[in-house]
Design goal:
7 helices; four-stranded mixed sheet; Arc Repressor Mutant, subunit A; alpha+beta; 2 domains
């Protein structure tokens, strides 16, 4: 697949657009999430809208990416591939991140702060300990959601039933529906996404969930 085709497909579980990589701390989350899930690509020099903006200094970008993979991910990521592609008179850096055989990886997001991430649709989502336990025993290239489908409680069922009866479910709607705090409500919805019950969408102003 060439660069134009990749961009036309938009960001996804396996594809991330980055206008630039300013700090290893930030890009390490994306690299970690791809390696912990199904692998994929990062296009550096493409903005969130899919416009080719190019990179000013490919060598500087490569330095940040290699530093992030080697020093800001634990265990360090191996096997990343980098190539420069010319498009519309600009240089785009295509970073290929293979699915790791050493899961789970954690990204350094601040000094002495290491966190795990996985890809949920086109987002890098922080993992729980339960997610990391699943990753430890999950073979590379295993298809489908990260978790097997499990029996659900009444709050999870309420979210699914609402999503079935309405075009979409938002976080504020779910908070009102089950009378949860924001953090617990968000964690519940993300769990349903990881289990394959709901789909996550964030292309509009307010993220939402559907069946």
């Amino acid at each position: 697949m060439n660069l134009t085709e990749m961009i036309a497909r938009g960001e996804s579980e396996t594809l991330e657009f980055k206008q630039k990589t300013t700090r290893p701390y930030r890009i390490s989350r994306t690299l970690t999430s791809l390696a912990n899930t199904h692998g994929g690509h990062v296009l550096v020099g493409v903005d969130d809208a899919g416009r080719v903006v190019g990179v000013r200094d490919a060598e500087e970008e490569l330095f940040v990416l290699r530093t992030a993979a080697a020093q800001h991910v634990e265990p360090p990521l191996e096997g990343l591939r980098y190539r420069e592609v010319e498009a519309e008179g600009r240089t785009v850096l295509v970073v290929t991140v293979p699915e790791s055989t050493r899961k789970p990886h954690r990204a350094q997001v601040a000094a002495d702060d290491w966190r795990g991430y996985v890809r949920v649709r086109d987002q890098s989502v922080q993992t729980s300990r339960l997610t990391e336990q699943v990753l430890e025993g999950r073979p590379p290239t295993a298809p489908g959601p990260l978790f097997e489908r499990l029996p659900l409680g009444r709050h999870e069922l309420a979210a699914i039933e609402y999503a079935q009866a309405h075009p979409r479910l938002t976080l504020p709607q779910f908070i009102k529906l089950v009378n949860f705090g924001k953090r617990r409500a968000y964690q519940t919805l993300i769990k349903l996404v990881l289990h394959g019950y709901l789909r996550y969408h964030d292309k509009e102003k307010e993220p939402y969930y559907t069946i």
